[in-house]
């Protein structure tokens, strides 16, 4: 067996006998001198195997200099480390250590917690995916890494530890966050890597159906699977930037019924009495607070909430009906801010006026069942 593999300015010699390698190296050395190039023995490595085990005594040299063995100096090639164990366990340990240290580093940054989630999603996870892809990493290790990531994500988003992963990663849930699951990215990456298929989204959709099955099995956190009329809402990073941290937390926790209602507090062993403190009749669940507390109804709390929403709608519509709203001009830019008309390039915005149908006619009437509302 004698093989010479070359790629760009790298060469790999594979032989079955020590003498063959020495012979090949000396021939190559001559050729290098002839072509006025030089070897860099210090940047090269040798690895000798005898009966499947690393043999550390065999050394090679080129241009009069010794080539270090992989045992002496581990080497990184094409983003992957090679050492004398020829196993990946050390690199997997290094990766896990990176996860721990990076999470702590991000946690120590004097940033608002939503920015910490962003760093985790856009900086740490992409960095981790590479070692997870090239080394032999078991699924249980990746799941352990994901559990660590989830713990910090929940903490930074102000969510209780009991909130399931469905809430964080589901794409079918009524509240869709743009978070990436590292375990899922890992699986998708492996599939791409192994099969080099273009449509490897299959893995992701399989994960999504597993999540839906899990959600349906969850009696409390999976209630959204029964909200037939509710529209799905996607939370973008832009939405998150504009929200106060507490608001995002309340939004997610309310979707998955994880707000500290009396019933939940009793369930979590943080309170004894699940009874509603307002009516003192029924257990205080989220549904009870939002729509079925008799005392809250009698006190006009539901009417107040209804009126606030209606007020917001009617005020917005009325503002659009004012004569000055009719003259609001809208600036429309062509894609990229430029446009061609014939051979003429237009870089200024195309001005379009009177797009507001409420403003151009004066016979619109707004009627609202609100106290003190006049049309
Ligand atoms: Zn009540």
Describe the structure.
There is one protein chain. This protein is of the alpha+beta class and 375 residues long. It has 4 domains: 2-75, no CATH class; 89-254, no CATH class; 260-298, no CATH class; 301-360, no CATH class. It has 15 helices and 14 strands. It has a two-stranded antiparallel sheet. Strands 3-4 form a two-stranded antiparallel sheet. The mean pLDDT is 81. It binds zinc ion (ZN). Zinc ion binds at residues 276, 278-279, 282, 288, 293, 295.
Write the layout of secondary structure elements.
Layout: E1 2-7, E2 10-15, H1 18-34, E3 49-50, E4 53-54, E5 60-62, E6 65-67, E7 75-77, E8 80-82, H2 89-108, H3 113-134, H4 139-157, H5 165-169, E9 175-177, H6 182-195, H7 201-217, E10 233-235, H8 237-242, H9 245-255, H10 262-267, H11 286-292, H12 294-298, H13 301-321, H14 323-326, E11 330-332, E12 339-341, E13 344-346, E14 350-352, H15 357-360
